[in-house]
Amino acid sequence: MAGLDKVAAFRALSERGKALLNQGVTTHRFKGGNVIIDKGQDVSGAYFVLEGRLRVFTYTPAGREATLYLIEPGETCILALNSLFNRLLYPAWVQTEKATTVAVVPGPVYRGLFESEPSVQGLTVEALSTLVFRLMAELEQVHSHRLDQRLASFLLVHAQEGGTLQRTQQEIAGHIGTTREMVARLLGRMAKQGWIETSRGAVRIVKRTALAAIIKS
Amino acid sequence: MAGLDKVAAFRALSERGKALLNQGVTTHRFKGGNVIIDKGQDVSGAYFVLEGRLRVFTYTPAGREATLYLIEPGETCILALNSLFNRLLYPAWVQTEKATTVAVVPGPVYRGLFESEPSVQGLTVEALSTLVFRLMAELEQVHSHRLDQRLASFLLVHAQEGGTLQRTQQEIAGHIGTTREMVARLLGRMAKQGWIETSRGAVRIVKRTALAAIIKS
DNA sequence: TGAGATATGTAGCTTAGGATACAGAGGGCA
DNA sequence: TGCCCTCTGTATCCTAAGCTACATATCTCA
User: Fold this and answer.
1) B92 with B175, same domain?
2) How much is the ipTM here?
3) Which of A136, B107, B121, B165 is paired with B156 by a 20 to 30 Å CA distance?
4) What CA–CA distance (Å, rounded) separates A2 from B105?
């Protein structure tokens, strides 16, 4: 099952469904930092992340990037699903944030599974609706928050257990849709206040409550 | 069928499916300008717009509004669908833009239809994926365009056939998430150039190509 | 080990956008 | 018909955010 047994919906397949899946699924491994789907590309299957992380993002006319959402292991690249069902061209770029392994289920196979397997129907609706909520939350964020609030939110949400976020300032800027200089400026202010510490390629949160307070102000 | 025969997916139901639908569907008519779903509300069914228009929007902490998307006749209020499947509380407000008639399919009925009727499965996935694309387009707009570009886009997209948009400047501001004064300022500039004409409660597009050029600049 | 590439930090300047305030026009209703 | 409410238009001021430029530090690799 090419690693898809990690996904509960696929474990719940009938024997016939498992046979159908196994017949067409392939696995691909990509290095980090690579764009694996370009906007406008005619996508040919459902992508499930087995390990690593995918980043779905868009470019502004000014050339700046903004992350729309991230895809963690066990999750699927929903836009590929959409392209399956609606024959729409891909509306964003997809990049590997780090070395990433993806299982790809070909469109006809996925469609066949969807028609006959309740667990795949549930998986599809759940994945789509979760994405709708995420996008709405992101849209609300962009509309209603100042840049320093969005940066603080990004740090809190994406830092590891120990409080460190391993990303360059350029990468952070690419996520929240601003310039590297603005990220440096805002991080500088936070560092000056003792709330964080910066180093090359990383930000360490020292006072989470202070960052949370920025968001609420 | 309470008007739902306008929706192709419901016309395609089996006799058993039609019986199930008719057993639970209700119709509601609302005046224009009313909030019919509040954020956080525990929504109890799938809402289909028969006539009128619904507006799904969010508030900023500053009290400003921003429209997430509109729902036209024949379309469904997807967030209600999401709340059905995932028991999530509603993440936005829903308001009638004008007098609106809505058919409401209770959650258990919709779930039953989804499980047994391929056309409802298709309708659900199509509605969700269409919304995902809309939200991504909106997110891309907000990230990458100046306010005058978003206003021009809004005018072009929402004007009637004859080129007139029947909305107050306050309403327009509420859609694109800015202040009435900014909308007045930007419309004033466009009017000065002869591209549009403003009057109370309406904007008439005089030169569509000029507005399109703003978006591309 | 050092060159070169990448990342960080900072400065100066400009413009977009928002806040606040207020005046006047238009329309509805008693 | 006139009052009052709603809507439009404009002015002034301020700050956030972006652009451009450049210096310095850190890391990789030959």
Assistant:
1) no
2) 0.85
3) A136
4) 40
